[in-house]
Amino acid sequence: ADEAISCFHGSKTQYGFPRFLSLKEFKKRSNGYLHENSCTFGAEVFVIEPDKVKEESFTLIRYPQQNTFTLTIENWSTLGTDPQFIEFDCEKRKWKLLVYPKGDEAGNGKSLAVYLEVQRLTEKMQVYADFNLRVLDQLKGKHEEKQFERWLSASHPQVGDANFMPLKDLKKSKKGFVQNDTLVVEVQIRIVSGPGIAPSKPGPRVAPSKPGLGVAPLKLGLGIVPSKRGPRVAPSKPGPGVVPSQL
């Protein structure tokens, strides 16, 4: 296709067609490719400059050495609407595990709300986190657990669920979530990105409207190309490369 783009580099310095035109058609006088035993070849080249993109590298850390943190909430039945939380360090970052005992506005006060929040990020910093939030069943070990994964930033530092589990389930002692008026919530960080900035994404490349560098036609032998030429025959099986312009 005329809009095909080829990328030249150290290990790929040539593009073209192994079967551009059959020798039979090339030598046929009525096609006009040969005139007085001479022919002319040409190539038209458009150069596209790549976007200047700044990229930053980062590292994904799987199951950090210390990756499970526990919030034990006592006197559960006497708590109001204020969030309960613990702050902790993981892979050189500050984090906060938050629990809203009476739920928050997003859950209409009918569900336990649980969130993980990363702290002290600058405007351009982003952190990837893959983690589990769980409310422990202190009787049978059948914990209520959910998995999350997200890129976190200064403008969106928090992820979790406003409807983590119904508050009515916490009131049923046989379910084991609240024992001795105590609720236990954990976060387990499975994967986290190390310090750095998330890589930026390159923008689209746009072909120039006007040709860049041109290559003058290469003349072989003596003579000129006749002004009138016969029809050209397209190659039967083009190879990879840039389609040459019509001469």
TrEMBL record:
Pfam families membership: MATH_2 (PF22486)
InterPro entries hit by this protein: MATH/TRAF_dom, TRAF-like
Residues covered by the MATH domain: 1-45, 66-189
Record-linked Gene3D superfamilies: Apoptosis, Tumor Necrosis Factor Receptor Associated Protein 2, Chain A
CDD domains in UniProt: MATH
Region (Disordered): 226-247
Highest taxon in the source lineage: Eukaryota
Protein name: MATH domain-containing protein
Organism per entry: Eucalyptus grandis (Flooded gum)
